[in-house]
Specification:
It is built from 15 helices and no strands. The chain is mainly alpha-helical and about 350 residues long. The longest helix is centred in the middle third of the chain and has 40 residues.
């Protein structure tokens, strides 16, 4: 007699939804603790080969880890210095840019009023109302609090990074102990593949960012656009966010070109240059440098980026793709979850195997 208790289908679905909701709720509530640990773990995986190399050369483990962490900090500090120097140039010319923006805004109001036969005062009231809502949404006190949290996170991140690299054997052995011996081979494959994916993805992403920053800056400098370098670097950083970031990156240089130049043709030329760079990036750079290891289709990429933004904000958008790639590796090694891994992948069948889906009307 089989006394095995079977959970009905509707109950399983309900439990899955409850579990997913609890997971996302926990991630959102505990984001100030979880996000730094996630970033530190990803960076630790990236720095692990350097630590192993230094230890093979006879260097003490603590010194090797400390050197790797210091190197990562120096790279970040150099990056911040480059951006801050460009921002200082932007700050010095901000009053001139503001005056030009006011003039362009007045011309735009006049054009809208003449084109659509709307009273100018109504257009101005609408613009002022939109500005008031934008100011309210900025919530200065909240932003200052968020900035304080980011500073604290920035100070804790090297500590997390050092500890994760130092206690790596302990953490790996803990993961091994969570599973029975017959699953150790699969767990080892998941860990190995996840490590390779993150390392290759981040290295490729770094080189892609440098190439895009150079292309953006060169294109803007050739067109004579102000703040070309900071706009090029900002566009390269935003371009890290798959699909969505590239669209956002176009907006700022187009607006700057429209405001600072006498002719609107500059804005169109900037738009054309960025579209050309996006074409080169999507068809030549990403397939060869970035996407060779992360096999996630475009639909799922956009969805997980939006989910990452909803749960963790901008930091969630940056880590959504590598985390999804790790989840796909896990799905591919668990029999019952393989269909979900297939859904995340970029292998598209030529036709559906359901006969009714292939019938022609």
């Amino acid at each position: 007699m089989d006394n095995t208790f079977k959970i009905p289908f509707y109950a399983r679905v309900a439990l899955i939804f409850i579990g997913v909701f609890a997971c996302f709720f926990t991630m959102q509530v505990g984001q100030h603790i979880i996000v730094p640990i996630v970033y530190a773990t990803i960076i630790a995986i990236l720095l692990n080969p350097l630590v192993n190399y230094l230890m093979r050369k006879g260097m003490n483990k603590i010194i090797a880890i400390a050197l790797a962490v210091i190197l990562a900090i120096l790279v970040v500090v150099a990056f911040i210095y480059i951006i801050s120097t460009q921002l200082s140039m932007f700050r010095d010319t901000y009053p001139q840019l503001e005056r030009k923006f006011v003039i362009v805004s007045e011309e735009l109001v006049r054009w809208i009023a003449d084109k659509f036969k709307i009273d100018k005062s109504r257009v101005n009231e609408w613009i002022k109302g939109a500005q008031g809502e934008a100011i309210n949404q900025l919530a200065l006190g909240q932003r200052l609090t968020e900035a304080g949290r980011m500073m604290i996170t920035g100070m804790l991140l090297p500590v997390y990074l050092f500890m994760i690299l130092y206690y790596k054997p302990l953490l790996l052995d803990f993961i091994r102990r969570l599973f029975r011996s017959e699953h150790h081979v699969a767990v080892g494959e998941v860990l190995t593949n996840s490590k390779k994916i993150i390392q290759s993805y981040l290295v490729g992403l770094f080189f892609e960012m440098i190439i895009i920053a150079v292309l953006n800056s060169a294109g803007l400098l050739l067109l004579g656009i102000d703040y070309a370098i900071i706009l090029g670097i900002t566009g390269a950083i935003l371009n890290i966010i798959p699909y969505i970031g590239g669209i956002i990156a176009i907006t700022l240089p187009v607006v700057i070109a429209f405001v600072t130049k006498d002719s609107s043709s500059y804005a169109l030329m900037v738009f054309g240059v960025y579209i050309l760079i996006q074409f080169i990036d999507n068809h030549y750079i990403i397939p060869r440098i970035v996407a060779s290891r992360v096999q996630i289709n475009a639909l799922m990429s956009v969805i997980v980026v939006l989910i990452g933004a909803a749960v963790w904000g901008v930091p969630g958008m940056f880590v959504s793709i590598p985390l999804t790639a790790i989840i796909k590796v896990i799905f591919d090694h668990v029999e019952n979850l393989k269909p979900w891994g297939f859904l995340l992948g970029n292998i598209v069948p030529t036709a559906s195997r359901f006969s009714f889906m292939n019938q022609k009307k």
